[in-house]
């Protein structure tokens, strides 16, 4: 199987960290796609993912799967003996999915929008709207507060153990640095959790 | 179980249609929350969903689950004998999740942003940015094109049968009317699929 990614981008990192925690990282051959050079815009790549995003998982039969959580779901279901990170039962699966979506919509997406609309990084492909970017950075900051409150007296986001919710949140929190949003002492619970996550070997893959 | 919703909003509709197709609609007691009146901003509701959105599923033990797809996942996993709408195996589950996310990020979200930023509906709670709204309506229109192409010679989005991908897409396509995006003859394949979906009894619940 091939995993098309840009190593330093946050979504591919979420997949790698998920695979590392499951002991499945060696199941994929990593293929680097340079977004800055627009390699994701080629016809060949668009045939793999019409949305032009990384990561994409290409199975040996040529089937391509896009979207981080869909790729994670593939491995969770295909390797049932690996550590379960998306939940053990209906209730857990739903709560973990709720959290991964909260992180996607209220943290990851606002950070991405904040970055795209307050910098010139993608200006050759889009028209940045500074006011929109700033409103998103504010929203992401509010989610830092929310997460900090939620993590009071908790080692992990849900069910007292590491799940995909933590991996998703950790990679997204780390992504915050692109808009200068950092885990300072103003977020003591978040910081403790962040340091615990950062110390995992899977955080470095 | 209680399902907090606003009946005419598109995300609660996705949950109802999903439940109806599974024959599980009678499992929930529906509770109407009036977003226009700000009932979702009350402390009581925020304790159920800190993100202040509908739908929310409240289990009999008081556990609350937010996010449409997480609620759908709960029912899919909890009632394994009901028709499977999220896939029968790892490959199907991943592809259907890919599609529901594509629809969420490239159709539903842009329509919502387009509506919020080109109308005054939420102006007491946010600052609409018209340019951003228009850019999102353009993006949603492009996804109509993409979906129209994808549906050539296909009755359903994936695996030749009705899945959550179709339900998600149908409710999102219908939601397009709030930004005057409609399934015209310019989208013949989309239109055929749309009429097929619209004829389902579950489209009316």
From TrEMBL, chains A, B:
Question: What GO biological process terms are annotated to this protein in UniProt?
Answer: glutathione metabolic process
**What is this protein's name?**
Glutathione S-transferase
UniProt GO molecular function: glutathione transferase activity
Output the PANTHER family linked to this UniProt entry: GLUTATHIONE S TRANSFERASE D10, ISOFORM A-RELATED
**Subunit:** Homodimer.
* Residue intervals of the GST C-terminal domain: 89-205
State the species of origin. Answer: Idiomarina aquatica
Domain spans labelled GST N-terminal: 1-83
């Amino acid at each position: 199987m091939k995993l098309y990614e840009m190593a330093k981008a946050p979504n591919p990192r979420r997949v790698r960290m998920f695979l590392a925690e499951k002991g499945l990282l060696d199941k994929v051959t990593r293929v680097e796609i340079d977004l800055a050079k627009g390699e994701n815009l080629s016809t060949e790549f668009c045939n793999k993912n019409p949305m032009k995003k990384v990561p994409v998982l290409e199975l040996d039969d040529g089937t391509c799967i896009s979207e981080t959580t869909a790729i994670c779901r593939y491995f969770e279901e295909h390797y049932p003996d690996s550590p379960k990170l998306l939940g053990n039962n209906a209730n857990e699966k739903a709560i973990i999915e709720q959290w991964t979506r909260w992180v996607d919509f209220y943290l990851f997406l606002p950070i991405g929008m904040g970055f795209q609309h307050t910098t010139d990084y993608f200006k050759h492909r889009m028209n940045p709207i500074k006011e929109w970017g700033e409103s998103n950075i504010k929203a992401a900051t509010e989610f830092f507060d929310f997460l900090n409150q939620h993590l009071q007296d908790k080692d992990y986001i849900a069910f007292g153990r590491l799940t995909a919710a933590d991996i998703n949140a950790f990679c997204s929190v780390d992504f915050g640095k692109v808009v200068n949003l950092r885990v300072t002492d103003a977020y003591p619970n978040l910081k403790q959790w962040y340091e615990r996550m950062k110390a995992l070997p899977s955080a470095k893959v």
